[in-house]
Amino acid sequence: MAFDATFFALVGLILFFILIAYLKVPGMMAKSLDERADNIREELAEAKRLREEAQILLGEYQRKRKEAEADAAQILAAAEREAAALTEEARQKTEEFVARRNALSEQKIRQAEADAISAVRSAAVDLAIAAAERVIAAKADGSTQDALFKDGVGKVQARLN
């Protein structure tokens, strides 16, 4: 029987398989694959846990954002109400100021009218007295003047006593 290269290749292959079985390579490979599968399962579990935590955090941040938006809306509404109240108060104060200034101006005008009327009356009285003096002086003679003077002096003495 002639042994050719195919026979020796077959014998080498069988010896290789026996050596692999003797060294427990399939068990080591299975163990290695099991360890790798366990690692992958752990990584998947960790990824799932992290995803759930991320979902929880996302929900919490969305809730906080909605609360912040609600707070901002409340603050904005309060600011608008306060601005409206301040505007109304300023309008009322302005109207009151204008009314007081108008009243003060009208009072000053009435006072100025009264002063003008008094001045005109005083000037009219002075003019009437001066005119009466001229008329009396022109019509009265010396004896009439003496009688009027004595009469006036007598009235003054009567009032002083």
From TrEMBL:
<keyword id="KW-0066">ATP synthesis</keyword>
<dbReference type="GO" id="GO:0046961">
    <property type="term" value="F:proton-transporting ATPase activity, rotational mechanism"/>
</dbReference>
<protein>
    <recommendedName>
        <fullName>ATP synthase subunit b</fullName>
    </recommendedName>
</protein>
<keyword id="KW-1133">Transmembrane helix</keyword>
<keyword id="KW-0812">Transmembrane</keyword>
<keyword id="KW-1003">Cell membrane</keyword>
<keyword id="KW-0375">Hydrogen ion transport</keyword>
<comment type="similarity">
    <text>Belongs to the ATPase B chain family.</text>
</comment>
<keyword id="KW-0175">Coiled coil</keyword>
<dbReference type="GO" id="GO:0046933">
    <property type="term" value="F:proton-transporting ATP synthase activity, rotational mechanism"/>
</dbReference>
<feature type="transmembrane region" description="Helical">
    <location>
        <begin position="6"/>
        <end position="23"/>
    </location>
</feature>
<comment type="function">
    <text>F(1)F(0) ATP synthase produces ATP from ADP in the presence of a proton or sodium gradient. F-type ATPases consist of two structural domains, F(1) containing the extramembraneous catalytic core and F(0) containing the membrane proton channel, linked together by a central stalk and a peripheral stalk. During catalysis, ATP synthesis in the catalytic domain of F(1) is coupled via a rotary mechanism of the central stalk subunits to proton translocation.</text>
</comment>
<feature type="coiled-coil region">
    <location>
        <begin position="30"/>
        <end position="96"/>
    </location>
</feature>
<keyword id="KW-0406">Ion transport</keyword>
<keyword id="KW-0138">CF(0)</keyword>
<dbReference type="InterPro" id="IPR002146">
    <property type="entry name" value="ATP_synth_b/b'su_bac/chlpt"/>
</dbReference>
<dbReference type="GO" id="GO:0005886">
    <property type="term" value="C:plasma membrane"/>
</dbReference>
<keyword id="KW-0813">Transport</keyword>
<dbReference type="InterPro" id="IPR050059">
    <property type="entry name" value="ATP_synthase_B_chain"/>
</dbReference>
<keyword id="KW-0472">Membrane</keyword>
<comment type="subunit">
    <text>F-type ATPases have 2 components, F(1) - the catalytic core - and F(0) - the membrane proton channel. F(1) has five subunits: alpha(3), beta(3), gamma(1), delta(1), epsilon(1). F(0) has three main subunits: a(1), b(2) and c(10-14). The alpha and beta chains form an alternating ring which encloses part of the gamma chain. F(1) is attached to F(0) by a central stalk formed by the gamma and epsilon chains, while a peripheral stalk is formed by the delta and b chains.</text>
</comment>
<comment type="function">
    <text>Component of the F(0) channel, it forms part of the peripheral stalk, linking F(1) to F(0). The b'-subunit is a diverged and duplicated form of b found in plants and photosynthetic bacteria.</text>
</comment>
<dbReference type="Pfam" id="PF00430">
    <property type="entry name" value="ATP-synt_B"/>
</dbReference>
<dbReference type="GO" id="GO:0045259">
    <property type="term" value="C:proton-transporting ATP synthase complex"/>
</dbReference>
